[in-house]
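Figure 6 in text form: structure in, sequence out.
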């Protein structure tokens, strides 16, 4: 009689701290044993020449998220989580976004309806707060945090989402009391509005001007202000989708003062530049996201901060809008002015391959750091560790068997999202996920999806340890 449900043999296991040769046994959806020469499994997987990694945790992606401008998020929980799994991700944390005037619980209920029966892998929700009424800060948000929605995003820009500093402080205070992680989109809305009006008045409507409307100082100022608010409220925060040096310097400065300020970056800031927005005709719209991609010097600063420990997590910020689509990038036709183009790039499937190839294979970061940035730290950041994010006895058997040597030229045709382009078309990478297990179930079997929609479970998050304020030192 087999000792395990599944045994993965002869692989090289990598965690955030160690790389070692071992077999891994799975029973009842959990990791049951790690060791040499394990007993037999009902299913045996040979991982010779492969890496065995904890499944990726993509803690910033947008799936089936409704918007107020008529645009359509192209991926729902089925297509989005399938693409995620093909890319080696086994947990996603998208956003339940509140419209102004909407009770927060209604936003969460709506989002559960969207996810129910569709996800192929496990998922949790962040909240997006756009209307922090006294009812919300006093009752609704604390109750939801206690129910397992232990992180929320705050926007300092976008007219329909942005909060003023007083509102941000009120929310940070709730996060402090209840033990939730605040994620901050740090760009100065008024600076952007002023610059946008000037560009439009000069007839500059093409996609390339998106980057000119949001230069680095717009992000640097808001990052600094967010850090100051976190200091005032005495609570950790995470600055999301950090694009370059000046914002990194603010985070580094705060960390140097002993503050718990965390940073997230994304593959678009490692391999795209502002130049990609200059592409022929309207093509640059494919790379419109906020903050925008910067230049090579800023890419280098992002890599330094990844290697140097300033960043804590790498997410995709998958925001899927189709290109040739009146509900996508061409919301107002093929000449849509830059300020009306839906913001965001798709990348849920390419997150691990790009960081692995550009980071690990090129010697910019080590394998353990790769695991930490893509899996362990996001699980810790949002209260899912040790269930997710590690290869440990008792943890969910969410595992990626990764071929470190497979050479792939990324094309949209090979991807599984519901978007008609990838900003990474033609990018050559080395290394690709081969087989993916979620709670011991095969989801991707050597490049073929074998899981049914709806097998993914909703995860309630614990209050994250990392969201705790620094202890007072006597
Ligand atoms: O351009 C971006 N980043 N779109 C997605 C929404 C957000 O702010 O993360
Ligand atoms: Zn954002
Ligand atoms: Zn986002």
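Output sequence:
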């Amino acid at each position: 009689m087999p000792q395990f449900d599944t045994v993965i043999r002869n692989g090289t296991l990598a965690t955030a701290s160690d790389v070692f040769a071992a077999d891994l046994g799975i029973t009842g959806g959990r990791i049951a044993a790690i060791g040499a020469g394990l007993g037999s499994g009902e299913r045996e997987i040979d991982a010779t020449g492969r890496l065995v990694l904890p499944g990726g945790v993509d803690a910033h992606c947008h799936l089936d998220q409704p918007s107020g401008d008529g645009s359509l998020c192209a991926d729902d929980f089925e297509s989005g989580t399938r693409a995620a799994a093909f890319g080696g991700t086994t947990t996603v944390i998208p956003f339940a976004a509140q419209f102004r005037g909407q009770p927060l619980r209604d936003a969460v209920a709506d989002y559960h309806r969207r996810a129910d029966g569709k996800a192929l892998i496990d998922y949790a929700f962040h909240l997006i707060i756009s209307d922090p009424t006294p009812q919300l800060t006093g009752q609704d948000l604390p109750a939801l945090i206690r129910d397992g929605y232990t992180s929320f995003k705050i926007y300092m820009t976008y007219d329909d989402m942005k909060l003023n500093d007083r509102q941000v402080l009120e929310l940070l205070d709730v996060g402090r009391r209840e033990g939730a992680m605040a994620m901050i989109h740090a760009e100065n809305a008024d600076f952007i509005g002023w610059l946008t009006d000037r560009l439009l008045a000069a007839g500059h409507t093409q996609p390339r001007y998106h980057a000119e409307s949001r230069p680095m100082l717009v992000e640097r100022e808001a990052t600094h202000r967010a850090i100051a608010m976190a200091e005032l409220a005495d609570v950790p925060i995470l600055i999301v989708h950090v694009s370059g040096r000046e914002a990194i310097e603010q985070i580094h400065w705060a960390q140097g003062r002993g503050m718990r300020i965390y940073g997230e970056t994304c593959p678009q800031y490692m391999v795209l530049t502002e130049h990609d927005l200059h592409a022929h005709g309207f093509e640059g719209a494919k790379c419109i996201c906020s903050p925008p991609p910067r230049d090579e010097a800023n890419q280098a600063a992002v890599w330094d901060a990844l290697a140097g420990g300033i960043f804590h997590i790498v997410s995709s910020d998958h925001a899927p809008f189709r290109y040739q689509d009146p509900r996508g990038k061409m919301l107002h036709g093929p000449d849509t002015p830059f300020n009306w183009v839906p913001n965001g790039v798709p990348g849920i499937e390419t997150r691990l391959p790009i960081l692995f190839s550009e980071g690990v294979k090129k010697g910019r970061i080590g394998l353990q750091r790769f695991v930490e940035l893509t899996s362990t730290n996001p699980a810790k950041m949002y209260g899912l560790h040790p269930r997710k994010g590690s290869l440990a006895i008792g943890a969910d058997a969410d595992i990626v068997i990764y071929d470190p040597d497979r050479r792939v030229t990324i094309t949209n045709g090979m991807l599984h999202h519901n978007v008609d382009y990838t900003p990474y078309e033609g990018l050559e990478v080395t290394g690709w996920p081969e087989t993916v297990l979620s709670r011991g179930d095969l989801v991707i079997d050597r490049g073929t999806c074998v899981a049914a929609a709806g097998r993914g479970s909703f995860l309630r998050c614990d209050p994250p340890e990392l969201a705790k304020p620094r202890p007072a030192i006597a």
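Caption detail: The chain has two domains: 4-54+393-449, 56-376.
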